[in-house]
Design goal:
With 279 residues, the chain is an alpha+beta fold. It is built from six helices and ten strands; from the N terminus they run αβαββββααβαββββα. A ten-stranded antiparallel β-sheet has the order 1-5-4-3-2-7-8-9-10-6.
Length: 279
């Protein structure tokens, strides 16, 4: 009986792959990197009585973490302007730099850097040098939608190439006016057809607010307050800084910038561990 004859599959078996010695080595795409995790770091200082003010402030910050963790509506601010250089350096080295940073425009302009302890924020500006313990700094909420570029709303110019922007503007303006708390309303531009002219029209319609936020972790997330109340631009980038998710979010402060109660409680415990180790 005649049997079917099957040729071996192409690309398999001896000789099907190039000899590494005969050509360049196979290059793989880089794997994602840059994930930040907490690693305890002890200040490299010799602690004596001169540094007692800094130790007292660190203990005060740890206690504030416990208070704010049980009542997320509260904040605690610790003024650092009275510290001398050595005590200020000890506080700065203990705090370190965490994942979230902010710029708050206004008077005074503020630079905000989260410490390695989630929910413990370093706030600096003209005449301002303090630690704020809160889910998110108070200034970032208060100043967010103070316009640096006013929102034009439906009056934004709609030139050639504008296709879907008018419908999106109407949706965002309506949700902005009616949002009363609860689940945010998200418009996902990544899943919607749009043109460059649509994006320019949306920018003009929504304006620009006073707060910019960058959250660094597995990739980056950039959050920008618009000039339209309750509307944020939230953009996620991968580890090669390519935009992978582009959204408008109508609601309160986006969760990516907020420290949870559990994080604050953990920050208080970890800060006390550091204090015990350096005393």
């Amino acid at each position: 009986m005649v049997q079917n004859f099957h040729l071996p599959p192409m690309g398999f078996g001896p000789g099907s792959q190039p000899d590494p010695s005969e050509g360049p080595e196979l290059q793989y795409l880089p794997l994602p990197s840059g994930m930040r995790t907490y690693a305890p770091s002890l200040p490299e200082v010799e602690v004596d009585d001169r540094l007692a003010p800094a130790l007292a402030i660190l203990a005060e910050i740890a206690a504030a973490c416990d208070v704010v963790a049980t009542d997320a509506g509260t904040t605690r601010q610790v003024d650092l302007t009275g510290l001398d250089a050595a005590n200020r350096a000890l506080v700065a080295e203990t705090m370190g730099d965490g994942e979230v940073s902010m710029k708050c425009r206004g008077v005074p302009a503020l630079r905000v850097q989260e410490s390695v302890f989630a929910g413990v924020w370093q706030v600096a500006g003209a005449g301002v040098d303090m630690i704020e313990v809160a889910p998110v700094p108070e200034a970032s909420r208060a100043r967010a939608f103070v316009p640096t570029v006013p929102a034009m709303g439906g009056l934004a110019p709609k030139g050639p190439g504008v296709v879907n922007a008018p419908a999106l503007i109407a949706e965002l303006m309506d949700k902005s006016a009616t949002w009363q708390g609860g689940t945010p309303h998200v418009v996902n531009l990544t899943l919607l057809p749009h043109t460059e002219e649509d994006l320019a029209c949306l920018d003009a319609a929504l304006g620009r607010g006073s707060v910019d936020i960058l959250s660094r972790g597995y990739g980056n997330c950039r959050v920008t307050a618009t000039g339209q109340r309750n509307v944020w631009r939230v953009q996620f980038y991968n580890s090669t800084d390519a935009l992978i998710l582009d959204t408008f979010e109508v609601g309160g402060m986006p969760e990516v910038a907020i420290a949870a109660s559990e994080d604050l409680a953990d920050s208080g415990a970890r800060l006390r561990e550091v204090l015990e180790a350096i005393r």
